[in-house]
Amino acid sequence: MRGIGGAVTAGLAAWSAQAKTILHISDVHLNLTLDEMNYGFDSSPRLLESALSYARSVLHDPDLLLYTGDAVAHIDHNESVLAKTVQTGFSMVQEYFHVKNVTAILGNADFHDYEFYVTDPEKGGTNPTIGMVDAPWKQALSPSHFEAFDSRGYLWYQIEPKLVVISLNTVPYSVKHKPDTKYLDDPFNQFEWLRRTLVEVQTNGSYAYIVGHIPPIIDSYGGESQWELKYMLTYQAIVEAFPDIIKAQAGVPLFASGAISPLFGNSPSFTVLFSYNADTFDVEDYAVYATNFSTSGDSNALEWTKIFSAKAAYGLPSLSSESLRALTHRMKTDDGLLHEYYRHSKADSTRLPPCTTSACLDKVLCTQTWFSTVLQYRECLDERSAERIGIPHWLHPFP
């Protein structure tokens, strides 16, 4: 949606009018003691080094690096290991890219899994959860930006005179968040701040990209909501009130980068967003780069390659809202296109089963509509099943 509030980082404030490229790296899940590079494992330092080296060869100096959380492996850690892992991963990124252009975003694995203590940002001070892993950003952010991040985990960046990036703290909205704070209508007062920030963006005649870690969607893998319902509804109401200024989000959050970690059988990947329109700030294209591990397992020299670009792969004239809605309609009658979309979402991994059954393809299609509830998502699946046997579609037409 993979955001925003605070003072502007010097490097981001100086983003020139000609800057048109964004590098997106997510879900590294670095295991400092691991040497293996293969499916079924999190990222070893060697794997992250390989990914960063290749990314720099593709995009030597990105204008913005979206580093969207989950730096730590899927194993139990004490606080010192958490801090060391986050610091090490960020330092490796720093070796290849300008850290002042890197977003500060936390994922659910960047501390004890999904455990994020909600505090009152109005009182200031370091949030105890953020404080465990905040060291890398103390040098990368301006003092006022770091103070805001350290107390609440969300920021905004003015990256051009008419463009801001809003980075959200999405962990408290998760259905898995601990401790249970569902009784809070607005954890960290983030929704109030988001509304106020978007009003200011609109008043200034500017545009916004919103980024974060946990997307506000129904996940096709398990058919489960990623956010608590009331937070999903609040967020949807906010962003739907600003359709003309929020970019790179046409209904369903658009640019969800794949993971560097190959733990779940996906190929390690990262995303390059190529250029945006200088007048509208619509993203014009994006490409995904990945590596497939050899069948023999570990390799000292991974081969990375561009596996697809969106416009070419899906026959799109642009990535405008209209083009993406048209793509969804084409997917309804083209199972081959649906399967290609699914395959690309897994970075063309050969270790995952193909999505060729009607049940699997329907799940992929129904995630293209931004449903609020699991019930709506299941109704979509039922309607797709009915359509396949000739019963007319009439309940919830795709937009």
Automatic annotation (TrEMBL):
- Print the keywords alphabetically: Glycoprotein, Hydrolase
For this protein, the record's InterPro entries field holds: Calcineurin-like_PHP, Metallo-depent_PP-like
- Domain Calcineurin-like phosphoesterase intervals: 21-223
Query: One Pfam family from the UniProt entry?
Result: Metallophos
Recorded GO MF terms: hydrolase activity
User: Is the keyword tRNA processing assigned to this protein?
Assistant: no
Protein's UniProt keywords contain Hydrolase:
yes
Question: Which regions span the lipid bilayer?
Answer: none
PANTHER family documented for this protein: METALLOPHOS DOMAIN-CONTAINING PROTEIN, SPHINGOMYELIN PHOSPHODIESTERASE
Q: What is this protein called?
A: Calcineurin-like phosphoesterase domain-containing protein
